[in-house]
């Protein structure tokens, strides 16, 4: 527990000031976190990021992370992000032939999906911060409230398993408790900040974000169970890897943009 607390304080001392500053430091942070997360995902499938497919995945990730203010860099070469993704697919498939199927079609699919999964999530981290610091803090507090509520309420009264094949310790009671705690935090935001939303809007948005935040956590749990790993990495002692800490937010940040800021 002591190690977890120290790791959380150190990470928070780095993450929060950068988020508060915003701008280019946030973009750099997003690139760093996303690159580590991609490395962790590829490692689960025993794919090295220092390899031809690993480098293709990383370059595609960096292109997907380009925020709107740097879109002109792509306009110069008249390529869209989708066109780069299609080019990456062709390169991946070519590599299956070059390696005589040692790099398989399944590896191609995993590499592409991993890049999109990480890239889309952290891209919307950048874009959400551009819309305002309040939205980043809102997302963080909603997920912290959901996770804490689900954990403590699940331990106290949880009896029915939520999804035992994927995450044996999570309960339906805990999941509902997590949503309830997120709603309480959201109402505090509504009362004490200038976040633009009516009561009903805030209620609906929070329920969606809390539920999908939990789904994001279950997605990563399913990945780890499938590939038989305990944590996605060990960069944060006591907390696992970057994916272990950001799995819920990778679902929440795009949703905030789609249903709140769009």
Automatic annotation (TrEMBL):
<keyword id="KW-1003">Cell membrane</keyword>
<keyword id="KW-0594">Phospholipid biosynthesis</keyword>
<feature type="transmembrane region" description="Helical">
    <location>
        <begin position="77"/>
        <end position="96"/>
    </location>
</feature>
<feature type="transmembrane region" description="Helical">
    <location>
        <begin position="108"/>
        <end position="126"/>
    </location>
</feature>
<keyword id="KW-0443">Lipid metabolism</keyword>
<keyword id="KW-1208">Phospholipid metabolism</keyword>
<keyword id="KW-0472">Membrane</keyword>
<protein>
    <recommendedName>
        <fullName>Phosphatidate cytidylyltransferase</fullName>
        <ecNumber>2.7.7.41</ecNumber>
    </recommendedName>
</protein>
<comment type="pathway">
    <text>Lipid metabolism.</text>
</comment>
<keyword id="KW-0812">Transmembrane</keyword>
<keyword id="KW-0444">Lipid biosynthesis</keyword>
<feature type="transmembrane region" description="Helical">
    <location>
        <begin position="199"/>
        <end position="219"/>
    </location>
</feature>
<dbReference type="GO" id="GO:0005886">
    <property type="term" value="C:plasma membrane"/>
</dbReference>
<dbReference type="Pfam" id="PF01148">
    <property type="entry name" value="CTP_transf_1"/>
</dbReference>
<dbReference type="GO" id="GO:0016024">
    <property type="term" value="P:CDP-diacylglycerol biosynthetic process"/>
</dbReference>
<feature type="transmembrane region" description="Helical">
    <location>
        <begin position="6"/>
        <end position="34"/>
    </location>
</feature>
<feature type="transmembrane region" description="Helical">
    <location>
        <begin position="174"/>
        <end position="193"/>
    </location>
</feature>
<comment type="similarity">
    <text>Belongs to the CDS family.</text>
</comment>
<comment type="pathway">
    <text>Phospholipid metabolism; CDP-diacylglycerol biosynthesis; CDP-diacylglycerol from sn-glycerol 3-phosphate: step 3/3.</text>
</comment>
<feature type="transmembrane region" description="Helical">
    <location>
        <begin position="46"/>
        <end position="65"/>
    </location>
</feature>
<keyword id="KW-0808">Transferase</keyword>
<keyword id="KW-1133">Transmembrane helix</keyword>
<keyword id="KW-0548">Nucleotidyltransferase</keyword>
<dbReference type="GO" id="GO:0004605">
    <property type="term" value="F:phosphatidate cytidylyltransferase activity"/>
</dbReference>
<feature type="transmembrane region" description="Helical">
    <location>
        <begin position="132"/>
        <end position="153"/>
    </location>
</feature>
């Amino acid at each position: 527990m002591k190690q977890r607390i120290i790791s959380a304080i150190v990470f928070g001392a780095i993450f929060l000031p950068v988020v508060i500053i915003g701008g280019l430091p946030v973009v750099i942070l997003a690139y760093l976190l996303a690159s580590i997360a991609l490395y962790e995902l590829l490692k689960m499938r025993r794919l090295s990021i220092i390899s031809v497919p690993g480098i293709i995945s990383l370059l595609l990730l960096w292109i997907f992370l380009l925020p709107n203010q740097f879109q002109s860099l792509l306009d110069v070469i008249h390529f869209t992000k989708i066109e780069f993704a299609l080019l990456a697919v062709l390169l991946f498939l070519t590599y299956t032939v070059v390696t005589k199927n040692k790099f398989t079609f399944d590896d191609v699919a995993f590499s592409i999906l991993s890049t999109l999964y990480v890239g889309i999530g952290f891209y919307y981290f950048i874009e959400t911060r551009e819309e305002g610091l309040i939205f980043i803090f809102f997302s963080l507090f909603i997920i912290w409230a959901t996770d804490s509520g689900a954990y403590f309420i699940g331990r106290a009264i949880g009896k029915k398993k939520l999804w035992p094949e994927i995450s044996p310790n999570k309960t339906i009671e805990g999941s509902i408790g997590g949503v309830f705690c997120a709603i309480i935090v959201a109402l505090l935001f509504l009362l004490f900040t200038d976040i633009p939303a009516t009561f009903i809007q805030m209620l609906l948005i929070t329920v969606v974000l809390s539920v999908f935040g939990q789904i994001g956590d279950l997605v990563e749990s399913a990945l780890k169970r499938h590939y038989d790993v305990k944590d996605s990495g060990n960069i944060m002692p006591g907390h696992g890897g970057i994916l272990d800490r950001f799995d819920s937010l990778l679902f929440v940040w795009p949703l905030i943009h789609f249903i709140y800021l769009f």
